[in-house]
Amino acid sequence: MTIQPNGHTASREERNKANLAPFANPAVPGYPTFLTAQPQPVGSLLPAEKFPQNANPPKAFEPITIRGVTFPHRLWVSPMCQYSSDNGHATDHHFVHIGAMAQRGWQGITVEATAYVPEGRITPSDAGIWDDSHIAPLKRQVDFVHAHKGTIGIQLAHAGRKASTLEPWVQVQHEEAGWTGGHVTDDEHGGWWKDVAAASDLSYDNEKYPHPKESSLEYIESLKVAFRAAIERCKKIGFDFIEIHGAHGYYLHNFVDPVSNVRTDQYGGNLENRLRLPLEMAKIARENWDKPLFYRLSASDWLDDVVGPEKGHPGEKEEWSWWGIEQSTILTQKLADIGVDLIDVSSGGNDARQQIKVGPSYQVPFAKHIKEHVKNIIVGAVGIITDPAQANDIIENGEADVVYFARQVLRDIDFPLQAAETLGAAVSPIVQFERAWSRMVVKRDHLKAEAHHEARSEVEGEEGKEGKRQEEKKKN
């Protein structure tokens, strides 16, 4: 036996071989660059057998499966216009914007309102899906989200009478500099004000917004063709779900609302006719898309204090004065019967006279009403939901099945992980960021209390354990 100068009996090579570990950093199969594979969906519950606090988790973190697509939790992302596209094409801004959500545990990520015809954009910088050239940059986002085992869909939209307007910050910057004119983008800067189309030739705001032309029957049929083509592109891109935009004063909202629809043909004149186009579009989507299908609606014009009751002319040919929760419930039932899986309940945006009573959870009563009256559809709630307990209570109390977030995503990208920690659950961060969440992912075998609405007292994670190890070493 040879004793080495350092006192070891084995050679350095032999000692190194004894310490070899036959493991590699796993890569996402098929991804175009190296990307570490995640052991489970980011933001999903860790196994209850290892993390007993997850045995009876908060409802917000219970998975939900729709048409074979499993969403690991119920904190979802609303579509948020970024006004940062290049002739409809997604850019690096969108890749970082969406990719960060996937890394931080958001699910049900909805790509912003995306126009299926160029004149369906709100501004010249809006997202588009009217051409095959739009596929690649959108697929790049989808592939990244899927690489993190996330779920992502898209909102298909037409801006209606609010099209060809200025990007919000462009408008604000010039108004601050003294501009007092309108909000309509001119020809020189990429506008299409001559081609703005709506249900009727009624402007949202005569002083600021475009004066649209009434959509011809030929134009409506052309939109159906473009919509089908957009759905085919969604298949190629690989989206998990599609949401039809029927809210906020845009094209389909223009049609359902007596405030903005004074047509005298089959698409106007009474409730049945006003609902015709949204239902036709939903049927087209359901016939051509076998994955989850959602619909966003505005449940109220908020004109109670301005016009009077929603059903202001009972017994007359047109009974309804404006669009509200009663008609929204009727539309939702018809959408559910067609096969729409989820109704995303927002409000407002179609009448400049609206008197919105803004406050925390201010739109949740609309979601609750629809959930109580339409039993064969999943309901999503949105609107100033900023607190983990607030979000979880909405689901626990049966007011909605999922909760959507918008500005809160931009303010607090880590909200899903922080919400889990606050509610006493343990969920999976991406492995690269795991050290930052050691207090949450510690296996709390000694915790007996169920995790629901209140935060658990802070339990030391790996950081705390390491400090204790150092103390023990000093003692010994």
Give structural notes:
By secondary structure, this protein is of the alpha/beta class. 32% of the residues lie in helices and 12% in strands. The protein contains 16 helices and 13 strands. It has helices at 12-18, 92-103, 135-147, 168-176, 217-237, 251-256, 271-274, 276-288, 304-307, 325-338, 364-373, 388-396, 407-411, 415-423, 438-441, 462-475, and strands at residues 64-66, 69-71, 75-77, 107-115, 127-128, 152-157, 197-198, 213-214, 241-246, 293-298, 342-346, 378-381, 402-405. The protein has an eight-stranded parallel β-barrel, surrounded by seven helices. Strands 1-2 form a two-stranded antiparallel sheet. A two-stranded parallel sheet has the order 7-8. Helix 12 (388-396) links the parallel strand 12 and strand 13 (402-405). Helix 2 (92-103) runs parallel beside helix 3 (135-147) and helix 8 (276-288) packs parallel to helix 10. The radius of gyration is 26 Å and the shape is globular. Residues 445-470 have low confidence and may be disordered. InterPro entries: Aldolase_TIM, OxRdtase_FMN_N, YqjM-like. Residues 448-476 are annotated as: Disordered. Residues 61-422 form the NADH:flavin oxidoreductase/NADH oxidase N-terminal domain. Pfam families: Oxidored_FMN (PF00724). This is NADH:flavin oxidoreductase/NADH oxidase N-terminal domain-containing protein.
